[in-house]
Amino acid sequence: MGNIWSLDLEIEVYKWSSAEYPQEYAVVYTCVNDKSKFSIFRLSVRPEKVLLRLADSLCDDHPIRVHMELIAERDNNYRYFNYRLVRVVEAGTTYDPSSTNDDKVSFITILCHKRASSYSVTRPGENKMTWKVEHSSCCQGFLAELSFHVNIECHKVNGLSVKFRGPFKFKAPRIITESLLERSTPHIQRQVNGEPPNSINAFVESAFTGNEYILFQAEGRGNSGGTEASAQGTRVTVNNTAAQFHGNGNGSSYEKCFVVMNYKAP
């Protein structure tokens, strides 16, 4: 079909609650002329865990999968929350260490010859509590961009919470911003109280094998300090439906968070 990005997209934002996650969000881009081509970003939130999942099939020859989780647990006295683990598993993107600084990690992919997809993670600043995630899709010769971002905060009493904003439309050089859900355009936009269609959810919940990047791991329960970027590019299999990881990892097991990892020496 050529450059899928030249076609109109439906843009929908879903919001609901589930038994496992009190807060659930999803952003879905769907090709107007071919409903089988879509991209879904799903955000699931509870005090102990934030799960961010991206599945993109707008280009048949280059699907993208990103699975990111942030886990928090209480200290030794079971009073205050601290981050325990932050990691990303990706398939179909390009991780370029040369484009990564001390604060930001980016996974960038060129699709359909004229479209770029970027998934960026920014580590906390001085407050040590807020992680930032941004997903952007550039199109029209990289002169226009769709973007949304999430701030994940860890409150010492209440645990993890998020602030979700977007999607927005930017025009080069990124000086004009407009909310796509607050204006009338040729695109079809709507905000839905409820879950995305089962066929779309099934894609983002399906298993995949990708490269794991550990961005932070606490040294032990109740310790706010930890190791950054301790394991890079390890191959793991993600079973999203059961929220489980299987494969080579860092030797840690988080049973309450349904995370199982086995270490294998290089």
TrEMBL record:
Organism ancestry: Eukaryota, Viridiplantae, Streptophyta, Embryophyta, Tracheophyta
Highest rank taxon of the organism: Eukaryota
Protein name: Uncharacterized protein
